[in-house]
Each structure stands twice: as C-alpha cells, then as structure tokens.
C-alpha cells in the first residue's frame, strides 16, 4: 500500500496532514511555532504506524531522548542550548541493536515537512557502491547536501581493483571539510560507542566527529524493539 503523503498548511505550519487526517503540533503566532511535546508524540506514533506497521509505538522509556531529538529537528534553539545541543551540528545517534535508531531517523524528518530533509543511506550500500565505481564515490559525498549514514560500523572494508579502503572513514573526513566550509550537516546512526568508533576509524576521524556531531544515545539497557 502506498504511504500517505505528509503535507502542511503553508499559512500555519504547526498543522500537518497525513492524507486527509490533520494533526496540530502546537500553535503558530504568524512568525514561529510553539510546539507541544505530547502532541508531537501522538503524531509521531500515528505516522510511525503508517510507515513501519501497526506494531510501531513510541515507548515512554524513550521520551527523554525523543524530547532532545524533536527539539533539534524543530530547531528550538533556546531549548537545545539548555540541553547542550548545537543546532548547527549533525546528530550521532547511538544505542544497542534494535533499539530504534534507524526508525527514529527515518521518522523525525516528517515532523518538519516544510523544511529540507536529508538523504538517508545505509553505510553498507555506500561500500557496495565503492566496490563498483571506486574512489569517485567518495568524492560524490563532498557535495553540500545533508546526509544520514545509517548503521555506521557494520559495513565491510571497501575494495576496488585490489586496493582496500576504509570508505566511511574517508567519507567522514570529506564531510568534515564540507561542514566546516558550508555547514552541510551529516547525521549518523551506530551501534558503536566512542572508543569503538575510534578503534574502527582512527583518532583522526574521531576528533573530527567531535566537531561535527551532537552525541545522543539510547540507554544501554534499551530493549530490542524488533522482538
């Protein structure tokens, strides 16, 4: 079944439509939106069921993390500052396998359909592409688009004509330069912690990641929601 399109009222972007169903996410004074978190949760729960199936749900245990993420996505600069979140950086969302990282990063752009979103790409697919076309693929990510790289750390080492390459490590270094020069954002989901990321990609990449990302994580005890 075709997914229902998410649209908004140009005169009042606090109102979102999923098909013909209306969701009010807060109030609009003509200049800015004052968002209501419980209304956001209800909308995301409904939209999530349409995207991922009837068993999808927003878990109360995740509300604290979700508040941080939604504040970032709606660009509530004042509240993000209180939370220690830099709205100019991307998001690095970590947590155990199956906790919902990928799902949330696919769902949350639908909270702000009036804003430009990012291209969502699994890291494994990127490496498969590199194995076919080589180093040109790394250069392709030096553009000014925003990206979300999903499941960083599960991809294999790339190989092109017998030469091995840590493809995602090279892409992240390139994305750092784009971020520094043009403020293009990169987002990441990963099962790895900070030490594991440094072990996999090296200190050079890890140091740049500190400048590029807000580090947000699910609790280490978060259950596998796929079960």
Give the strand line-up of the largest sheet: 7-8-11-6-12
Determine the CATH superfamily of the domain at 89-217.
P-loop containing nucleotide triphosphate hydrolases
**What is the terminal separation in angstroms?**
24 Å
Helix fraction? 40-55%
Largest sheet, strands/sense/barrel: 5 strands, parallel
The outline comes out as globular
Mean pLDDT across all amino acids: 94
Q: Secondary-structure map with pairings?
A:
Layout (H helix, E strand, L loop, with lengths): L5 E4 L2 E7 L2 E4 L1 E3 L4 E3 L1 H16 L10 H11 L3 H7 L6 E5 L6 H7 L11 E4 H11 L2 H5 L6 E6 L5 E3 L2 E3 L1 H16 L3 E5 L3 H8 L1 H10 E5 L10
Note down, in words, how this protein is organized.
With 227 residues, the protein is α/β, with parallel strands linked by helices. The chain has a domain at 89-217: P-loop containing nucleotide triphosphate hydrolases (Rossmann fold), CATH 3.40.50. The chain has helices at residues 37-52, 63-73, 77-83, 101-107, 123-133, 136-140, 167-182, 194-201, 203-212; strands at residues 6-9, 12-18, 21-24, 26-28, 33-35, 90-94, 119-122, 147-152, 158-160, 163-165, 186-190, 213-217. The strands form four sheets. Strands 7-8-11-6-12 form a five-stranded parallel beta sheet, with helices on both faces. Helix 7 packs parallel to helix 9 and helix 8 (194-201) packs across helix 9 (203-212). The longest helix has 16 residues, at 37-52. It is globular and about 55 Å long. It starts with 5 loop residues before the first strand and ends in a 10-residue tail after the last strand. The model has no long low-confidence stretch (mean pLDDT 94).
